[in-house]
Amino acid sequence: MNNFEYCCPTHVVFGKGSIAKLRELIPQDKKVLMIYGGGSIKKNGVYDQVKAALEGYNLLEFGGIEPNPKYETCMKAVEIVKREGIDLLLSVGGGSTLDGTKFISLASCYDGDDAYDAIMIRGEHPNRAIPIGDVITLPATGSEMNNGAVVSRLATDEKLAFHNDNVYPRFSIIDPEVTFSLPVKQTVNGIVDTFVHTMEQYCTYDVNSPLQDDWALGILRTLIKEAPKVLANPTDYDARANIFWCATCGLNYWISLGIVQDWATHLIGHELTAFYGIDHGQSLAIVEPRLLKNQKVAKAQKLAKLAREVFGVTETVDLKAADIAIEKIEEFYNSIGMKTKLSDYGIDASEAAARIRDRFKKRGTQIGEKLQIDADVTYDILINC
Ligand code: NZQ
Ligand code: ZN
Fold first, then answer.
1. Mind listing the pLDDT tens digit for each residue in 53-65?
2. Where a domain ends, among 129, 145, 178?
3. Ligand 1 pocket, 274 CB below 6 A?
4. The dihedral of CA 310, 281, 320, 216: what is its sign?
5. Same-domain check for residues 136 and 217
6. Any idea which ligand is nearest the CA of 103?
7. Total domain count for the chain?
């Protein structure tokens, strides 16, 4: 196992009725900006629960953060934070709202001209950020317990990520009941995103970390078991709770401690979203099976272990078991209604492959656990998608 350090300062409050705890989590003298998305929280009662919990507080609101949050929108909130002297940002929504809030938190402490260039491209971060708390409404990103965010810029079709310890949420409220209202498409997106987060960390090469492997494989097994239950019965509290905790633990970094990580599926998927607007989960389900095929030899040992321990495969030859694992993963995605080909979204594979190869060539991109995936390998992967 490799050396590691771990410090997650997030106070997690999990379970039914936990939105009422906001009152205990936020001191009354704080000026709060509540940030939300396109309005789902007004339809499912979450907005009313937050307002009730924070009655009497100095509470301002900013709505309209879109899925794959846009820099251009976030900067409008930054103006409010600077003008009003906000003490705490309260994100109420999915991963996009929370990621947008993380960007707003940092950008509000940045005084230069172009916060996207500084924070997302040059990595020049201010040394402080406005504190964040959240009510997370969609199990997928793990953003509620990590220090990362992904923000897009409309003007340049870019979708990039940043990490900064100052944007770890101070607290995260995870109430599985708020996910009863999720559209099927978003439930499925979240399950696939969680599955792929787990794979990006687990599925590289062995560094003798059996506990982290077992945690990762446990997440995959739980997703496979619970997914059909939430799809059959969207108000199955226990299944919703299990899926949510899988999502949080899929990217709160526990399973990645001391191991080697990949993340190439995500970085290629982000480009598909940036250029073609498909959902994050959809992009991953398209790229991952073809990337695993392309990298099968390097990942054979982990794929074979997954085949045996998650899918009960009895094949003893690693490379053959690896093939079966990849087929089973794609079958799982299809079984919950997730499509896995570019053509399913009317996207031409050769056009997408060439476009993303050119962008990666310009950037000098090299990704994967051994930086083995460059622009040309990305082309080979995408042409088969
Ligand atoms: O905007 P509203 O009206 O709230 O509706 C949202 C949105 O349309 C809706 N929704 C959310 N919770 C709901 C709900 N509808 C009904 N009931 C609820 N309880 O769902 C739609 C999608 O929401 P969004 O926040 O975009 O989804 P998700 O949580 O999957 O976030 C996706 C974003 O997170 C980034 C992705 O790239 C993408 O931009 N990621 C962030 C990561 C991180 N911070 O660590 C890691 C991930 O790999 C991922 O890249
Ligand atoms: Zn993801």
1. 999 999 999 999 9
2. 178
3. no
4. negative
5. no
6. 1
7. 2
CB 154 within 8 A of CB 69: no
pLDDT digits (tens, 9 = 90+) for 74-83: 999 999 999 9
In this structure, how many other beta carbons lie within 10 angstroms of the beta carbon of residue 1?
Answer: 12
**Ligand 1 pocket residue status of 169, Cβ below 6 Å:** no
CA pair distance 182, 186, nearest whole angstrom: 6
What is the domain range of residue 358?
184-383
Q: Which residue is it, tokens 């106070």?
A: 11
Residues at Cβ < 5 Å from ligand 2 ion: 193
Nearest to 64 by CA among 88, 48, 80: 80
Q: How do residues 336-352 score in pLDDT, each as one tens digit? A: 999 999 999 999 999 99
Are 189 and 140 in contact by the 8 Å Cβ rule? The answer is yes
Residue pLDDT, tens place only, 162-196: 999 999 999 999 999 999 999 999 999 999 999 99
What's the mean pLDDT when you consider all of the chain? 98
pLDDT at position 108 is: 98
